[in-house]
DNA sequence: CCTCGCGCATGACACTTGTCATCATGAATT
DNA sequence: AATTCATGATGACAAGTGTCATGCGCGAGG
C-alpha cells in the first residue's frame, strides 16, 4: 500500500527504504512502526527510545533514513542528528517533532537534517517526505519554512539564550548566577536584554516566547 | 494477531471491540489506528482530533471503548470524558496521555474513566487494558496508582489552583487580578499560599510543580 | 586603526513579589 | 450557638526583579 508520493508500475521492482526510528514514547514508537510497515517500500530496521542510542543503532543497522524526534532523554534529537551526520554523512535524517518551532527548524537543517515533519501532519506527508529524502531531496513543511524565514533567526546572543534557559526550572537569580559562575548583576543584565529582545515584560513570558520559537540553546 | 491479554481458542468466535480514538496529533492518531488494527479483535470506528468532537462522534458510531488523550484543543480529555460518561454511561473510557500526572489520574477516574495508560507504556499494555476495560474491569498502571496514592490529592484549594494557573502565561499580578476580578493583594495572597503548599520559593517553580503533579484545574 | 558587538562586572533606583497580621463574610460542621 | 474554613480585602515590610549608566577587555570587520 502506498499513502502518497513516488511512482511504481507493474513489473517495476521495489526499492525498499530502510528506516531507523527514534522516539521516546514507546507506544508512539510502536504505532509509527505499524504505520510505516503498511507501506511496502518501507522497512523499519530498528527503533530506539533515547538520543544517545541513535549512533550505535545506525552503526549496527545502516539505515537509509533516520527519523528523529527532538525531545528525547539522553541526547536531544538535534545533537543526535549532528552525531549521525558526522559519522554517516550518507545517512539521511528527518526530524519528526511535536512542535514546529522555527528556531528548531533552522538548527535542525544546520545540523545536517534533510527533512522536517511535524507530528500534526497527515501520514501521507511523512511518507512522501521519506521517499523524497531517500532520493536525495531536502523537504521542509512549506508553512514551517515560511514561518522560519519571516521570523528569522534568534536575536538572542548565545550567552543570553543560555542564561535565559537556565531559568526554566524557576530558580531565583542567585542560584542561576552561582550555577553559571557569574555575578548576580550580570545575570540580571542578560535577563534584561533577553526580556527586551523577546518583547516581553518579565522572565516568565520571555521564557515562554523563546521556547515557542525554539530560541533556547541546549535543553 | 494478539499482542497480549485475553484468551481465544480455535473455534471460539471473536468479539470485536469497537474503538473511538481521540488524539490531537494527526500522525500519532493515524499511527495508533494502524497499531490497533493489527489486532483482529479491535476495530477503530472513528477518530477525532478535538475534544469537542468526541461526544458527537460517540453518538454517531456507538463505540464500546473510547481512547482519550488529555491534551486536546477545543475541550480537554477530562472534560470530554465527563461529557461522554454523562450521555453514554455504558461506553467505557480509557485516558491515554503523555504524562502520568498523579492529579490527572485522580481526576480522570472521578470523571468516569475506566482505564489510564501513559504513552510510555508498551503496546501490549494498551491492548491488555482495552480488553480488560471492555470486559468491565478498571485498569490503572500500577506504578501510577502507587504514586497517586502516596502523593495524595492536591492540597491546593480550588481558588488557589485557579489563581496559580492564571499565571501560566507569565502575566504580572496586576493583569491576572484584573482578569479574575480580584484585588492585587488577594491574588498575591493566594499565590503566597500556593507557593507555601507546593514547597517552593516563587510562582514559577510553584507552577512547574503543580503542573507536573496535575494540580492545576482547567487548562 | 578604530569602531562595534559581546562578555562580564558594579552600583543605583524603581518597581514587583512574597510574607504576614488583621479583618469581614457566609457556608458547613460540630 | 460556636467553630471551622474558604473567600476576599487592606496595609506594611523585606526580598527579589528589571532597568540603566558606566566601565573594562577582547576579537572581527570596515
So what's the oligomer here?
homodimer
Biggest interface: A-B, 34 and 34 residues
Q: In one word, what is the shape of chain A?
A: elongated
Strand content of chain A: 5-15%
Low-confidence stretches of chain A: none
If helices are DSSP runs of H or I spanning 4 or more residues, what is the number of helices of chain A? 10
**In the CATH hierarchy, what is the architecture of the largest domain in chain A at level 2?**
3-Layer(aba) Sandwich
How does this structure look, described?
The structure is a homodimer. By secondary structure, the first copy, chain A, is an alpha/beta fold. Chain A has helices at about 25-35, 55-60, 75-85, 100-110, 125-135, 140-150, 160-165, 175-180, 185-200, 205-215, and strands at about 15-20, 40-50, 65-70, 90-95, 115-120, 140. Chain A has a six-stranded parallel β-sheet, with helices on both faces. The model of chain A has no long low-confidence stretch (mean pLDDT about 85). Chain B binds a DNA duplex (30 and 30 nucleotides) through helix 7 and helix 9.
